[in-house]
Amino acid sequence: MNREFLVSWLKLSCLVTGITGLVSFAASMEGSSGPWLWLFDLVKWPLDSDPAGFSHETMSVNAILGGVMVGWATLMYFVAAGPIAQGNLQLTRRMLISIVAWFCIDSTGSYLSRLPGNIVLNGIFLVMLSIPLLGLAKETESSQ
Length: 144
Prior knowledge:
Layout: H1 3-26, H2 34-44, H3 56-84, H4 89-112, H5 116-143
């Protein structure tokens, strides 16, 4: 896979992450929490419409999580579009390390809070973001 394709994949993955953050943020308001409620029900498994709504505290956490995800996605997008697209191997590796660190902490918390479906969702994001980064690291190493 060439650099342009891998950077495009990474940027698209960042957009998906950002959109997920916006969906989380939308769940900070009762009228727009439907998609996030469905996703939460899915990762909680089984699909049983539980919870039917979020508490005020959970809506606050949804807003915070949404902001963090959008910020994280925006930073990753600009790093991918700039330095990584230009072949900065150090940033490629550091970005990969930060994604693995996120995955380990988030997934451990999901396990401890009995939300194993979120580990699966985290795995999807890990794969979606890591494959282009690994490909870019390999491509950059072979061109040096």
